[in-house]
Specification:
By secondary structure, this protein is of the alpha+beta class. It has one helix and four strands. The radius of gyration is 16 Å and the shape is globular.
Length: 87
């Protein structure tokens, strides 16, 4: 089995607006087939395969006096993945 390594991780509190700007920058790179971020170890740029898998979920937990919402976006790629796309 191959080794796994975490190339980048972001977990910080920010305004929803700022999170949208951050995601827009990621999307701009995805459109070009690249993932570019700047982390603690400096900038990282990775070329991405043509086809990947997208998974999106939105959850909500409501209790009296408070609620919690969570948006999860997961993109995954495998080298040499089949180009066949489902309709």
């Amino acid at each position: 089995m191959g080794d796994k390594s975490e190339i980048f991780h972001c977990d910080e509190k920010m305004l929803t607006y700022d999170a949208a700007i951050y995601l827009e920058n990621l999307v701009a790179g995805l459109r070009q087939g690249k993932l570019g971020v700047t982390g603690e170890d400096g900038p990282v740029c990775i070329d991405l395969p043509l086809v990947g898998t997208l998974e999106v979920s939105f959850k909500e937990k409501i209790k009296p006096g408070k609620s919690k919402r969570k948006l999860t976006i997961e993109l995954s790629w495998k080298d040499k993945e089949d180009i066949g796309l489902e309709d």
